[in-house]
Amino acid sequence: MTRRARLFAWAGALLFLGALTGLGLLFAHRGLEAADQLSSVLGTFVGVTGLALSVYGTVSARRDRQSSTPPMPSARAGKVSNTVVDTRVHGDLTQAQRFGPTHGRTETDSHDHGGDTENRITGGSVGGSVIQARDVHGTVPAEDDN
């Protein structure tokens, strides 16, 4: 927890204890019946305020998530770059622009999507097989299938 967050936590705790002490003194001074009425009104305001804050938090979180998520590149246009740098891979490594089933596809289907694909491995090591492609249709063969 950062120093600023710790400061806010302590300030919130002290504020809560002060409000609780003030309400206790007010209830003792006014009597139980007036305290009951006042606590009902205060509880309503706290509940409505909590509901408004939760709606605001949900809307702002959704807005932040939508604005911070970059759009997925289209498989029909643009450039896809797959890069592995200074990494030790203990198994197989497959890099491709598109993965898809072979059902209903013809040979020409794999050539109509456009876009450039750059697959690069720089440094590091790969302990298994390496497949670098633009389009992969069907399953990638396991080492035993070769």
UniProtKB/TrEMBL annotation:
Biased composition (Basic and acidic residues): 104-119
Transmembrane feature ranges: 38-59
Keywords: Membrane, Transmembrane, Transmembrane helix
Region (Disordered): 61-146
Domain of life, source organism: Bacteria
UniProt protein name: Uncharacterized protein
